[in-house]
Design goal:
The chain is built from 2 helices and no strands. It is an all-alpha fold.
Length: 75
């Protein structure tokens, strides 16, 4: 995970802890809603990072294939 997804997850964990510690129903509910939102942002960040890594691997493989084809042409 990157710093962004780590940050989002840390916020979710903090909101969950705050909800658990709260004696007030409205505060607990607000913190639980916030924890859900932060967790969803963390998940989206991880998915985005994964997709980016996949695209970079595909692009690198394409560059390697083009380079290999160019070398074969020269041989």
């Amino acid at each position: 995970m990157s710093a962004t997804s780590d940050f989002y997850q840390a916020q979710a964990d903090k909101c969950t802890a705050d909800a658990t510690a709260s004696r007030l129903t409205q505060v607990r509910d607000r913190n639980l809603r916030a924890a859900i939102a932060w967790s969803e942002m963390a998940l989206r960040a991880v998915q985005t990072e994964s997709a980016r890594d996949s695209r970079e691997r595909v692009a690198e493989a394409a560059r390697d294939a083009r380079a290999a084809a160019g070398m074969a042409y020269l041989a």
